[in-house]
Amino acid sequence: MLTTPPLALYVHLPWCVRKCPYCDFNSHEFKGGTPPFDAYVDALLADLDQDLPLVWGRVVHSVFFGGGTPSLFPPEAIDRFLQQASARLRFAPNAEITLETNPGTAEHGRFDRYRAAGVNRLSFGIQSFDDGCLTRLGRIHDGRQAIDAIALARDAGFDNVNLDLMYALPGQSLAMAEADVRRAIALAPTHISHYQLTLEPNTVYAARPPEGLPDDDLAWDMQERCQALLDDAGYAQYEVSAYARPGRQCAHNLNYWRFGDYLGIGAGAHGKLTLGSEQTILRRWKHKHPQTYMVSAGTEKAIGGDDIIDAARLPFEYMLNALRLVEGFTPAAFEARTGLPYAAIAPHIDAAVSAGWLSADGARIVPTALGRRFTNDVVSLFLDD
Fold first, then answer.
1. What is the Cα–Cα distance from 296 to 302, expressed in whole angstroms?
2. What pLDDT band is residue 385 in, cutting at 50, 70 and 90?
3. Alpha-carbon distance 143 to 181, whole Å?
4. pLDDT digits (tens, 9 = 90+) for 180-207
5. What whole-number distance in Å separates Cα of residue 290 and Cα of residue 210?
6. What confidence tens digit (pLDDT) does each residue in 293-342 have?
7. pLDDT at 228 over 80
8. Contacts of 217 (CB under 8 A, 6+ apart)
9. β-strands 15-16, 28-29: how paired?
């Protein structure tokens, strides 16, 4: 039987100063003037009002502002949204509230006001501290600005900070990748996300691959060496690309990976909601273009689509998330989150154990080191035939 999991709130803020050539997120470069921040917050609240009946009485355990570049939005806009959202939804005490931040938008006094608005976690899109790498990635900041932005956040009282780093960048050597991780560790964030650059469809890099990309062997060496550096510094890997100090894992992302629920509001936002009375799981997404979204928010026209996840697809969807976690999952968690009996996936689990990809002791199913290296292959075992 399906049971209702924890609920999170994802808020998409779509605009950026300049779209990076590797980015496949729903981000839109705003040209000319200032984005309509106030009108967009109005649209977010109308969007939220429309989805509220799906989550009446439930508690929000985390909020995540993603983009785009959320730190383009003035603190006053973030404050107004959070005040209005918390009047409509029950926020858990000390709920984690994260704002994605571009170092190129940092300025003195801004972080103090984000913190006063209720933001208690920042996620900096650093990607690299090497100016050459940053230029090739099309970033709007340099290494010095990244360091200064983190210092401003510290001065404002933020003690929960994530740094995003990428590796296997154009023109990057193993020593350069290690230097980025060492610099990040020296800044003592609570969390580091470390992931490989990939050429995603419908990006500039996919259409025109950059020169100097490391080959697969070098990329693997970068991953292994950087993982060792992070581990030695006390950052424990808890997900494929996520490392944290003890007790500082990202609550919002953990909820995703444990197949929890989340409201998705904003242009192009996706949500997943367990409908207990109907014993179904709904995926809902919103229209991706900001202007279309803003004029239709709060009406059926703003909804890009609704999809009830078919029972045959649930094992794959669950594993797509749960097998990213070092902790794996329990049979009881699988049954509670999908409403399916564990017996439905037992043959696939046995096959993965035989391949050396998973370990299973009856109480918990955990990816092995080999399984974490071949996550896509493991997950594909659970595709509906």
1. 5
2. low
3. 13
4. 999 999 999 999 999 999 989 988 888 8
5. 29
6. 999 999 999 999 999 999 999 999 999 999 999 999 999 999 999 999 99
7. yes
8. none
9. parallel
Q: What is the 3-class SS of 317-353, one letter each residue?
A: HHHHHHCCECCCECHHHHHHHHCCCHHHCHHHHHHHH
- Contact between 98 and 119 (Cβ < 8 Å): yes
Calpha distance 5→350 (Å, rounded): 27
Q: Kindly report the number of other CB atoms within 10 A of residue 344's CB atom.
A: 16
pTM for the structure as a whole: 0.96
Check residue 101 and report its DSSP letter: E
Asked whether the predicted pLDDT for residue 30 surpasses 90, the reply is no
Residues 3/277, Cβ–Cβ less than 8 Å? no
Residues pairing with 262 in the sheet: 8, 272
Residue 95's Cβ-count burial label (10 Å; 0-12, 13-18, 19+) is: buried
- Dump the DSSP string for 234-252: T-EEEETTEEESTT-S-HH
- Cα distances from 33 to residues 12, 28, 30, 294, 311, in angstroms, run 21, 14, 8, 18, 48
pLDDT, tens only, 234-248: 999 999 999 999 999
- Do 40 and 12 touch, CB atoms closer than 8 A? no
Q: Are 8 and 260 in contact (CB under 8 A)?
A: yes
- The helix/strand/coil state of 73 is coil
Percent of residues, the chain, with pLDDT higher than 90? 88
Distances from the Cα of 227 to the Cα of 110, 130, 187, angstroms: 33, 19, 17
Residues contacting 316, CB < 8 A, separation 6+: 379, 382, 383, 384
Residue-range domains of the chain with CATH: 7-255 (3.20.20.70), 325-380 (no CATH)
Confidence of residue 1 (pLDDT cuts 50, 70, 90): confident
Structure tokens at 247: 């007790």
